[in-house]
Specification:
- 48% of the residues lie in helices and 12% in strands.
- The protein contains six helices and seven strands.
- The strands form three sheets. Strands 5-7-6 form a three-stranded antiparallel sheet, covered by helices on one side. The protein has a two-stranded antiparallel ribbon with strand order 1-3. It has a two-stranded parallel sheet with strand order 2-4.
């Protein structure tokens, strides 16, 4: 309900800032500490902090999508620019897991809300990488364990993780597909799931094509090289977060 959504939004925001500050400071300590035992403790602290960050981010995203005041702003979006942005964000994660992340080149331009669509695709790709033990991920087709027909609607519910009964936080929080479902419903797009146990799952999003007379919306992501030598102002009202950023 709306009261719950407002509470989650406020709580997630207020909790997230100090957690991000802790994550930055722990990361700084990990770069400086060399003693094996201390490094092991810091690694565990880092994992726990990242899990808490992911949980708060997911709750904030869910509450935002449940807020009736949020209205999508459809406009032409070039899919290739969107794929490039997601690839840049997830490529390192895929390599660290020994996986290949591939996007099929496309010149398609669709009509959607660029921010919501990117959030949906990021969650699908992240989910695919998490549940693929070997092989590759082609947006958005994974080679994971697959999903039984009886469970294919349940996976879109918040906190549902079919193969994580022990609630291992390294396997995520069970919010990604719930965010995808909420975003798709808000945009009015189609979402289909095909899955086979032991083979993997395929998620298909149906998007309306944009009119040829409209220029595509550019996805705004900063280029690290373009910012080299530039001065950037960082503004934040949380003292702990400011101190953590200055320490970096």
């Amino acid at each position: 309900n709306q009261a719950q959504s407002r509470f989650l939004a406020a709580a997630s925001h207020d909790l997230r800032q100090p957690v991000v500050a802790i994550g930055l400071l722990v990361g700084l300590l990990r770069e400086q500490v060399q003693a094996p035992e201390q490094r092991r403790l810091l690694d565990r602290t880092h994992e726990a902090t990242r899990a808490l960050e992911d949980l708060l981010r997911g709750l904030l995203d869910l509450s935002r999508l449940d807020n009736v005041a949020v209205q999508p702003a459809p406009q032409p979006v070039a899919l290739q620019a969107l794929f490039d942005a997601i690839d840049a964000h997830e490529h390192t994660t895929a390599l660290a897991s020994g996986l290949r992340l591939r996007f099929r080149p496309t010149g398609l331009v669709v009509l959607s809300d660029p921010l919501l669509l990117e959030q949906i695709l990021r969650n699908l790709v992240s989910n695919a990488l998490r549940y693929t033990a070997r092989g590759g991920v082609l947006v958005v087709w994974d080679t994971g364990r697959g999903i039984a027909p009886a469970d294919q609607q349940r996976v879109f519910e918040a906190f549902v993780q079919l193969d994580n009964p022990e609630r291992d936080r390294r396997k995520g929080q069970g919010l990604g597909l719930a965010i995808v479902r909420r975003g798709i419903d808000l945009l009015g797009h189609g979402l289909a799931l095909r899955s086979q146990l032991g083979r993997g799952s395929c998620f298909t999003i149906s998007l309306p094509a944009a009119s040829a007379s409209h220029a595509p919306m550019a996805i705004g992501h900063a280029d690290g090289q373009a910012l080299a030598g530039q001065r950037i102002w960082l503004l934040d009202d949380d003292p702990a977060l400011r101190a953590a950023m200055l320490a970096r």
